[in-house]
Amino acid sequence: MNFSSIEEVRNRIDHIDSELVNIIAQRAECVKAAAAFKTDHSAVRAPDRVQQVIDKVRKKAAEAGLPEVIIEKVYRTMIDAFIDYELEHHDQLRQEKAIN
């Protein structure tokens, strides 16, 4: 990419950030849906699945020319946040089932 000013760079970053927010929102909907299929907190935490995801994105990062350490840090942070989100939703679902 060739930019002629810092404003162009910032505008491009802003555009990418908007796209990322939309994509992360879609991921959140999937995470929320997954909570309904999991039986307990250990199933939500799923360390083996977390490692599978990390391995996949590290490979994709390498193919894209992105340092793997960057994508791993981003994904570990995102996954930690989504685990918290999914645990909350999982607990809410269990409470709703207990009431009904």
UniProtKB/TrEMBL annotation:
Q: Which segments constitute the Chorismate mutase domain?
A: 1-90
Q: Give the source species.
A: Chimaeribacter californicus
Keywords from the named record: Isomerase
Q: Which GO terms describe its molecular function?
A: chorismate mutase activity
- A Pfam family of the record is CM_2
Record EC number: 5.4.99.5
The domain of life for this entry's organism is Bacteria
Q: Name one GO biological process term.
A: salicylic acid biosynthetic process
Identification of the protein by name: chorismate mutase
